[in-house]
Design brief:
With about 450 residues, the chain is α/β, with parallel strands linked by helices. It is about 45% helix and about 15% strand. The radius of gyration is 25 Å and the shape is globular.
Length: about 450
């Protein structure tokens, strides 16, 4: 039986719209208790036994049996060989995408990632020193699909930030019937690591890989921060090791929201909704449009295009379970609803997207105009595709150079500054009952 997709149809003019829409948006990010317990046990074991535990779990979960971690680390020559092994169009695409991603993040670094200082009227120097993290770990999903784009998006901004060592982990589940016991090492992923300047690569995954990066083992170096997406076990592990190391975010299912005025070909919009729905059954695709007839045309294109999609069952499940097509009173109302949703990907598919962009305050990435498909941002536009999900765009930002830097305040007080600042500090310190603080400031008064 051919899969069919019928996203929920709503109108903002209907009674009960708010409740129905909120119910559709709801997604519980709470990890299953059994997953949390298992992850806790794995992390504790990796922290205690190091490499031995990582090897044991890699065999258990990925079917990869290695006598030592040395067999699970790939040297630079292997990555370079993978780059030359892949077809020329793939090599050229990787280099093109990497160049655009690098250029964007270099501009980002110049805009917000440089040190600065100034002196006040009394000669006191105040400023900020920006320095890169020493070592970061990037998690790249593996298994059923390959994600070279995730390698580029995580490693390149770290490289631009000045991180000296980038350690990549990627699971490579064993292939049935292959006698060497090694997993599937995707050449395109390894080639991307070569292009992005990754320092070390370990073919391990899951909670055990997160634990190895967070705590360090005899072979895997301890990192300062872990970035990159993964399954529920990876997300739970990142949540638990936060504090021991930094993390980028806890990502939920992928999301797209399309604001349409009815001027874009409806098959384009239908395919853009598919582009997120095909990720997994929990992905969410939303269309907001003031033209009811246009929404009907988009639904007709969904019906027409779905049978030809390789991942049609996943798309159908996603659209049936979490998709929604909303008829709004106006584009202004659609913008207001979008701000409430704070989507990961926001497409403004209209004749004049710059007219509506000032009204949009919360989104991981905003794609302006009919020609700007979200998929271009996923691969090669330049900005990072690691974006906040689950309405966290209200307070979170895309992965960027700033995630791989830290800031230290600079203070150099002049003799004159010590007089004015010292008197104020003394008053406040004594008001707090901290005598030593006050005396330390007072001793510098003349």
């Amino acid at each position: 039986m051919t899969a069919s997709a019928n996203p929920l149809r709503l109108s903002t003019a209907d009674d009960g719209f708010e409740a129905a829409f909120r119910a559709r948006l709801f997604w519980s990010g709470a990890a299953d208790a059994a997953i949390e317990q298992r992850v806790s046990e794995i992390l504790a074991d990796v922290q205690q036994r190091g490499d031995a535990a990582v090897l044991e779990y890699t065999e258990r979960f990925d079917g990869v049996r290695a006598p030592s971690m040395a067999q699970l680390e790939l040297d630079p020559d292997t990555l370079k060989a993978a780059f030359h092994q892949i077809p020329k169009p793939q090599r050229e695409a990787l280099l093109f995408a990497a160049d655009r991603i690098r250029s964007y993040h270099q501009a980002q670094k110049q805009a917000c990632g440089e040190s600065w200082s100034y002196r006040d009227a009394e000669g006191t120097l105040l400023g900020q020193k920006v320095t890169p993290l020493d070592r970061v770990g990037i998690y790249v999903p593996g298994g059923k699909a390959a994600y070279p784009s995730s390698v580029l998006m995580n490693a390149i901004p770290a490289h631009v930030a000045g991180v000296q060592q980038i350690v990549m982990v990627v699971p490579t589940p064993a292939i049935k019937g292959r006698g060497d016991g090694l997993g599937e090492r995707n050449p395109l992923v390894l080639a991307a690591a070569h292009v992005a300047g990754v320092s070390r690569v370990f073919t391990i995954g899951g909670a055990q890989a997160v634990g190895a990066l967070a705590y360090g083992t005899a072979t895997v170096p301890k990192v300062d921060k872990i970035t990159g997406p993964g399954n529920a076990y990876v997300a739970a592990a990142k949540r638990r090791v936060f504090g021991t190391v930094g993390i980028d975010m806890i990502a939920g299912p992928s999301e797209i929201l399309v604001l349409a005025d009815g001027s874009t070909p409806p098959d384009w919009v239908a395919m853009d909704l598919f582009s997120q729905a095909e990720h997994d059954e929990m992905a969410q695709s939303i269309l907001l449009c003031p033209d009811a007839a246009y929404i009907d045309r988009v639904q007709a294109e969904i019906d027409r295009l779905l049978p030809s999609m390789a991942r049609r069952d996943i798309i159908a499940s996603s659209l049936n379970g979490r998709g929604v097509l909303v008829h709004t009173r106006s584009m202004e109302e659609a913008c207001a609803i979008s701000n409430q949703v704070a989507p990961e990907h926001l497409e403004v598919s209209s004749r004049d997207p710059h007219h509506w962009e000032p009204l949009l305050h919360h989104a991981g990435a905003i794609f302006l105009g009919a020609f700007t498909s979200e998929s271009l941002g996923d691969y090669c536009a330049g900005p990072n595709h690691v974006l906040p999900t689950g309405a966290t765009a209200r307070f979170s930002s895309p992965l960027g150079v700033y995630d791989f830097q830290k800031r230290s305040s600079l203070i150099e007080v002049s003799a004159a500054g010590a007089q004015s600042l010292g008197r104020v500090a003394s008053v406040l310190a004594r008001g707090e009952g901290l005598q030593a603080h006050a005396l330390a400031a007072e001793m510098r008064l003349t």
